[in-house]
Amino acid sequence: MTDGTATGSLSTVADPRPLPNAAARWTKCVNCEAFVYYKRLEKNQKVCPECSYHFRLSARERIDFLLDPNSFAELDAELMPGDPLGFTDSKPYPTRIAENRRKSGAREAAIYGTGTVGGFPLVICALDFTFLGGSMGSVVGEKVTRAAELAATSRTPLLVCSASGGARMQEGTISLMQMAKTAAALATLAERGVPYFSLLSDPTYGGVSASFATLGDLIIAEPKARIGFAGPQVIEQTIRQKLPADFQTAEFLMEKGQVDLIVPRGELPSMVKKLLRYHLREESSEESSVVSRTLPGIDQSSGVGSAMTAIGEVAPGLSAWESVQLARHPERPNLLEYIEAIFDDFTELHGDRTLRDDPAIVGGLALLAGRPVMVIGQQKGRGTRENIARNFGMPHPEGYRKALRLMQYAGRLGLPLLTLIDTPGAYPGIAAEERNQSEAIARNLLVMSRLPIPIVCTIIGEGGSGGALALGVGDRVLMLENAIYSVISPEGCATILFKDATSAPRAAEASRLTARELLRLGVADAIIPEPSGGAQLDPQTTAAALKAALIEQLAGLHGTSGPDLIAARYARFRAFGDFTEGRASAGTAA
Amino acid sequence: MSMTADSAIPAEAVESVRAGLAALDDGDFQAAVAHLTAAARVAPAVVAIGRRLGEAQAAAGDLAGARATLAATAARAPDDAAILVDLAHVCQIDGDGAAARAAIERAADLDPTDPTIRLAQARLYESQGEMALAARGFAALARTAPTPTILNDWARISLALGEYREADAAFRQLGALDPDAELVARHGRIWSQIGRGDWRSALEQALGAARVDRYDLTTALLAYARDRLFTRMPQPAIAAREAELAARFGAELREHAEIAAREGDLIGRMSDEREGARD
């Protein structure tokens, strides 16, 4: 130091942390090769600020980044693996474990415990890829299992953060058995109605992806994370084909319907907090009282509340064909527009877990007057481009299977289900038939009839046949004033029965497809008034009326037990039919 | 002449320094810059304040500010290598490679025994495309302070330069040092031997690797070594196969580099303490 220059020790002013060494202060991004100052990288939760590359995290870092500060209480940290096979490759398994411990500073490839996110409690388990590739042996399997068991007994949501190459070869078949063990523990958790969120980070493969990682009620992935069962090289060698560049990335899986959400690391705490908030138990939440407060004077014993109109109150001014035109009006508000206007904090969930994410069906969690609900409906496009993308609101089987998954999830978690129906019908196409469109619709009817949760179905536009009914088995069925609901389109009916497509207006009238007629037939329970001339002329007013109606209906169903809901729903649909019973006259029987 | 803290930091700057350091630690870089700027105004000669201000500016992404602050601070403390290292990186990110090189070379001259400065220097050389200088730097570090990260860097650059003998040595050392790098080290040795045209060794090495891994890259390398040894491959086919193998091995090497990066913290702990003592 030159004379006259003050060095100045900052330690006397409580320097919280000495600077790391010269090389460690500047990290070179492995993706874009930019130098990033360590403080900047830390602040950015180890996401490169230049290219958004998500650096791999240790289990500790994952928990530090995700949970509220100082909220994590680790459990069973002392679990140690045995050596069930006496395994040696280039060195004995116990030696390999010891070396990994020394190198990584971790005791095993997973840690678990309890903590909070945004003040909401959860059980968390995080895998550590830096320890033997995050492989699942006895200890990882045991920790995931104990985490699930703790979540089940304490009825606390579970989050498992995966990063793993798969089952641990050094423990042989015992590691394979961890897959079954963890899956069984998660089955118990599901039976208890406790939510399980699975976070997939890069990489998640093999025995981990083929067990607990892909069994989440909700599956979240980090951007660009690689996720799959077999590695891409193995697949390439097997099928002798070049794989697409994005094969097995989170984005690829999202398109294929395998993950619900892709969430950048920096947004994970707020997303997890949001998800936990949806799953507040009703009895302990403020939301249920919010619903009550917003509904003064509602007669909760009646099926129909004051926001709706009974028979005779709807001005009978429009013909059936005019209603058809309004229900199909290109400016008529669509599902996402109603969701935006009616609900708070909507989180769209994606995919059927099997084939793809069908954009013709939109579903997700939301708050209605503060109360968590599941919302599902058909989405038409606004304009040609979006209409093509949304297939004009005509779902494929995978769309109905996405809806089914979300309905079952709501059923397990006790969340009311609201469906908003607007479809010309299920998509009639080769691929849809190949994937069994009929079964997809039928399965929804069957499952909806037995869901132990309040279900309110509203036809907001077109209620096209089985494709509409697949979301339409509810405790209450509402219709917007100019919505229609029919077994076939008027054009189809005219062609088949009247042998003349131009007779569609006559077919519309004959089909009794308007809200007014369906209210009279008992198919609809109530009509939600629209502004004169149709919802498209005043979407806000229509949305407000729909919102009030949904709140009223949920309030009416609130407090009814699951079995009572199922029994009433059964009775409701059991009653449909118009026939007479009489003894067959003599001689008519064969 | 070193001065004590109490005499070096005027009382009126202490609060600003304290607030600045706390903000820096909390990740509130703009607040840190504001507090430390106020402190530096009161105590412009205190090197540690200048350095922390430069750090806050770098963290906040204010490259011009960081560069000016660090250059001024380095001028006041011309024997402080750590400030020069930071200045070099800020200059490099700012696109001034010549200034970056001058700063890192001055830092290395000041403290030739600090491996972390050597490592930073070699990485900067690589970023500037000075691959031969970078390779020399990593090779020296591999002799004196080998870590998986350094060996990975040395091997990778040696491969890029076509220096297969050095790459083979780096991979051999990596395999011996890092228990988890056995496979990547074996693959690296196979690749280096292929590069040297030593097909028999490559084949033997690949057969050895098959004990650890029956799929993936091992099989591909094994098959390629076999084909080159026992068949006549046309040149276009050779080029295509080697490009594919190079891409796959490059990805494996990058993955190892990221996992092993934590090892870089280990080499530096001793010098962290030295730098901490300097503060």
Automatic annotation (TrEMBL), chain A:
Protein localization: Cytoplasm
CoA carboxyltransferase N-terminal domain mapped to chain residues: 25-294
Zinc fingers (C4-type) by residue: 29-51
GO biological process, one term: fatty acid biosynthetic process
InterPro entries for the chain: AcCoA_carboxyl_beta, Acetyl_CoA_COase_a_su, Acetyl_CoA_COase_Trfase_b_su, ClpP/crotonase-like_dom_sf, COA_CT_C, COA_CT_N, Znf-ACC
Limits of the CoA carboxyltransferase C-terminal domain: 303-556
Record flagged with keyword Protease: no
Major enzyme class: transferase
Similarity remark: Belongs to the AccA family.
HAMAP family in UniProt: AcetylCoA_CT_alpha (MF_00823), AcetylCoA_CT_beta (MF_01395)
UniProt name for this protein: Multifunctional fusion protein
Organism: uncultured Thermomicrobiales bacterium
Lineage of source species: Bacteria, Pseudomonadati, Thermomicrobiota, Thermomicrobia, Thermomicrobiales
